[in-house]
Structure formats: structure tokens, C-alpha cells
Specification:
Elements lengths: L2 H22 L19 H4 L9 E4 L9 E4 L1 H7 E8 L6 H14 L6 E7 L7 E7 L8 E4 L3 E9 L6
């Protein structure tokens, strides 16, 4: 047999083997609706006056907030985007602005893993009142909340503002 024919047969075998590997490879899919990781919202310290600046976050409340006494994050969204928490502290509702300020430090410490946080108070007004802060890997939208009638006091969600090149 001619050496060129042997070479052609070897190359054909290699190409056939490679093609079978490519066809057997699993298909990778990506979501075309990836969750946003930052917001173009108004900085929180421009939305509300506070002595504790949150210029890197925008406050998010439910669309129907005026009709809701308390609310929480939709459980399905919560599970899909949970990073860590609840981070519990002894802050009371009267210290909510400072509590949000401190929770922003927790989110900042998580780096790119944290895009938003949500704060609520358990046992509001009671001796065991405490603040809870949960971190998420996506921004919370106005539609990601559900109304509750439990004994908590909701302070709201905060989305990280997108960095701009200045």
C-alpha cells in the first residue's frame, strides 16, 4: 500500500473519531434572561435623608407598598438568588438607617457575589427585636415581593448601583 494512502486512512480515522466526540458532547445552554447584577436607580441617600450614606445602593419597594403593612421576597426568587444570611444584629427599627448602612458593608464584603440585600425586623417593638439582612446575587425588582401578615416589620431591599467610568 502506498504511504500516501496510509496517511489518508489515518487522517480519515482521526477526523471520524473527533467528529464522534463532538457529536457526543453535551449541549451547553445559557439563559437569555440572566438576572441583572446592578441597578441604574437613584442612590438611596438621594431618595431619603439619612445621616448614614448609601450612595452605592438604591432602595426598592413593592409596587403595591402603600397597601402593604409588611412584605418579604418571593420565596422562589429568594431561593434562586440567595447568597447568605440572614445576618442577624441587635439593631432596632429606630436604628434602621444605621442597620442598612451596616448591611451594605456585609454586601460589599461579599464583592461581586452580592448585588442586593433585604432587611426586616423580627419581634418589632419587643424586647427580642432584631434586624435581619439577607444577601442576593441579583437585583431585586419591584415585582419580586409578596405581601405577608406576619409579625415582622419590613425595611426594604437595596440594589447595588452600576459602576460608571468617570
Amino acid at each position: 500500500m502506498c504511504p500516501i494512502t496510509n496517511l489518508k486512512m489515518i487522517l480519515l480515522a482521526i477526523v471520524s473519531f473527533a467528529a464522534s466526540l463532538i457529536l457526543a458532547a453535551p449541549t451547553l445552554t445559557t439563559s437569555s434572561t440572566a438576572a441583572a447584577t446592578c441597578s441604574n436607580g437613584i442612590p438611596e441617600d438621594k431618595q431619603h435623608s439619612s445621616e448614614y450614606p448609601l450612595e452605592n445602593y438604591t432602595n426598592v419597594v413593592p409596587i403595591a407598598a402603600k397597601d402593604w403593612k409588611t412584605y418579604k421576597i418571593n420565596p422562589d426568587w429568594y431561593k434562586a438568588h440567595f447568597v447568605s444570611g440572614p445576618h442577624i444584629s441587635g439593631f432596632r427599627q429606630s436604628e434602621k438607617d444605621f442597620g442598612a448602612f451596616k448591611c451594605s458593608f456585609t454586601c460589599n464584603a461579599a464583592g461581586d457575589d452580592c448585588s442586593s440585600f433585604f432587611i426586616w425586623f423580627d419581634n418589632p417593638g419587643g424586647a427580642l427585636e432584631q434586624m435581619n439582612c439577607v444577601l442576593f446575587d441579583a437585583v431585586v425588582s419591584e415585582g419580586d415581593f409578596v405581601k405577608t401578615d406576619d409579625d415582622t416589620a419590613t425595611f426594604g431591599a437595596y440594589d447595588r448601583i452600576c459602576k460608571t467610568d468617570e
